[in-house]
Amino acid sequence: MTQGERGPTIVVSNRGPVTFSLGEDGERDHSRGAGGLVTALNAVVRRGEGVVWIASAQSDEDAAVAKEPAPYEVEDLRVVFVEHDAAAYDLMYNTLANPLLWFVQHGLYDLPRSPRLGDDTREAWESGYVPVNRNFARAVAETVGDSPAPQILLHDYQLYMTPLFVREELEEGVTGAFISLFVHIPWPEPDLWGVLPSYIRKGILESLLSADVVAFHTQGYARNFMQTAARVLGAETDSENGTVRYGGRETWVRAYPISIDPAEFEELAGSEAVLEQEEFVKGLPGKLLLRVDRTDLSKNVVRGFEAYGRMLERHPQMKGEVTFLAQLQPSRGDIPEYAAYVEAVGRTAEEVNEEHGTDDWTPIQLFMMDNFPRSVAAYKNYDALLVNAVRDGMNLVAKEAAVVNEKDGVLVLSEYAGAHEELGEHALTVNPYDLDEQADALHRALTMPDEERKERGDGLRETVMQNTIEDWVETQLKDIEAYRQRNR
């Protein structure tokens, strides 16, 4: 598929591939974006010719770039920054998208007590979320111009209204536009989606069904979406073929489990920075139990520490024989629920260490910082990896760790992590709410016979190698072509 045959490809996400700043010499500098989504979308960009990436301006220098002729070219990227009104963006991001949509879609609310929705919710929607999404749509239309048959690939929950607004912007003068939106977080059951006010739940669904393809990481989330569309809008769904018909349009609903670039992690594993960090990791006493996560409520860190403490209670012979290394990256500290959770994480680790620790052994080694080389060094050396998320869109840690681990490490995996659809048969499955089940699984993982460890470890690696990030991109491109062939 070439640009000449199909028109330009536009990738749109809230966060972009680069962030600009001014150096001490007053010259413009930039740094590459981090995170799984940016890495994945870079793989999309590599596959196309002249792909343009549209994203929100995040820094003052990003805003300066937004005022210059677009797209702005840097390294191998063509970038368009969208400058939003600061108050509108704050409402979109800190009141509507985070926490409301995030909490609803991850099932994080204590429903008898929260959320408390009202006029402030409507204000965040009408004065924040909707205007920011209209900004994105206008940027898409300006970038497309009068080019025929553009491919517009929208990403994640900050942009749910953008498909509808793009359709409106392109209604005149642009033919054959293909629009998709990839939801990178879980899609909940219809009852949970019903927590949202009717104008939000209906507005988002009507917008998503104006897209040609709506994509998720798992078949389960795709099914939930179709059931939600049927319940809320009365849409006609065909679960066997993965289609939803509404308002005279047919939308394909697909699952594309996101993955990683194994070669990248194999190279990282041998880098000088990682080798330096291995000295620390290998110096920890006993076997290594690992978790690498953001301090997001959905990651279930507190219960993970509690389950580890319970394992030590049940199996006191394990004291001094295993160290729990927790590499955590602070997340969304300006949201009160997150700040309180970080405190709970630290407090729980201290309680476990005080109850079970000795003068020469600290049960939990907790680090609240982003140290990627240390994380990769720990990936190589863990005996057991705990991924006990309440819900996850995917969880790439499970895949990253599997491809570089050198000790046939055992994955203890929540049944509600997106990765479970692919990796579950090779992992020890746990209910993330059941502390005793998690404690038993941790003990089993740390004492498992070598033969079973090797069989499970090989299975994890083979599964990841059979679906790399390039496969993820290729499958989507094939479906785009199939959709266009069917609907031309």
UniProtKB/TrEMBL annotation:
Pfam families: Glyco_transf_20 (PF00982). One of its GO terms (biological process) is trehalose biosynthetic process. It comes from the Bacteria. Its EC number is 2.4.1.15. SUPFAM superfamilies: UDP-Glycosyltransferase/glycogen phosphorylase (SSF53756). Keywords: Glycosyltransferase, Transferase. InterPro entries: Glyco_trans_20 (IPR001830). GO terms for cellular component: cytosol. CDD domains: GT20_TPS. GO terms for molecular function: alpha,alpha-trehalose-phosphate synthase (UDP-forming) activity; trehalose-phosphatase activity. Belongs to the glycosyltransferase 20 family. This is Alpha,alpha-trehalose-phosphate synthase [UDP-forming]. It comes from uncultured Rubrobacteraceae bacterium.
